[in-house]
Design a protein that fits this description.
Helices cover about 45% and strands about 15% of the residues. With about 230 residues, the protein is of the alpha/beta class. β6 (about 145-150) and β7 form a beta hairpin. α6 packs across α9.
Length: about 230
């Protein structure tokens, strides 16, 4: 069956195909074939292989696992997003599949990347991590849980006209959730406010980036309100 970068190209979840096509064999086949990169994998099971366009190929989940050790974090995230986009798998289903493959190569790293993108801070933890960043950016203490333009917002600075919203789930937000997010931002903008949106992951893992964006925005708004 085709596998690795060749399988990713077939599933449209990666553009890592370089050079020889990659195939996996379920037997200890020893011969080399020109133009092929052969992986001898007698441990592959029936759940790891399927047929697509009449071609034996590793499943999307197995393909993700095969390529995860080769790619950086952004490359893995892009593959997960593409697999979700083409309805090959989604984060909840992928997490369940990984739970059944504990100990296999690539599982631990793929789970770590997936969990980092889909975890959600509690309200108390979010405020505990975000408020110091806002203070370091030169912002006063915001109002929290206020209703602004008929939406409850996470953080609000009325004197600056700044609203900050946070998203706990990056992957697989439903169309209705995405539409509601756009309506919120549009309502705030139409009312003359400046909406900013951060993920919980950014607040937790990229605090310097969050602080810098807050500082730049606060500086601009302070000048505009003078």
């Amino acid at each position: 069956m085709i596998s690795h970068s060749s399988a990713a190209a077939l599933w449209r979840i990666g553009n890592e195909l370089r050079g020889a096509a990659e195939v996996s064999l379920p037997s200890p086949f020893q011969h080399k074939r020109p133009g092929l990169r052969i992986h001898r994998r007698p441990s592959l099971r029936s759940r790891d292989v399927t047929i697509e366009y009449g071609i034996p190929v590793t499943t999307p989940v197995q393909t993700l696992l095969d390529l995860t050790p080769r790619l950086d974090r952004r490359g893995v995230e892009r593959m997960i997003n593409e697999a979700d986009k083409y309805n090959l798998t989604n984060p909840p289903r992928l997490r369940r599949d990984l739970d059944q493959r504990a100990g296999e190569r690539g599982v631990a790293r793929l789970r770590h990347i997936l969990d980092r993108r889909t975890f959600r801070l509690t309200k108390e933890e979010l405020e505990r991590r975000f408020l110091p960043l806002a203070r370091q950016a030169g912002l006063p203490v915001p109002l929290t849980g206020e209703w602004v333009n008929e939406f409850e917002v996470d953080f609000y600075w009325p004197d600056l006209g700044l609203v900050v919203e946070t998203d706990g789930l990056r992957y697989h937000r439903t169309p209705a959730e995405q539409a509601r997010d756009r309506l919120r931002d549009q309502a705030h903008t139409a009312a003359g406010l400046t909406p900013l949106r951060f993920t919980h992951e950014q607040v937790r893992y990229e605090p310097e980036y969050v602080r810098r964006i807050l500082a730049q925005t606060a500086s601009r708004l302070a000048i505009a309100t003078k």
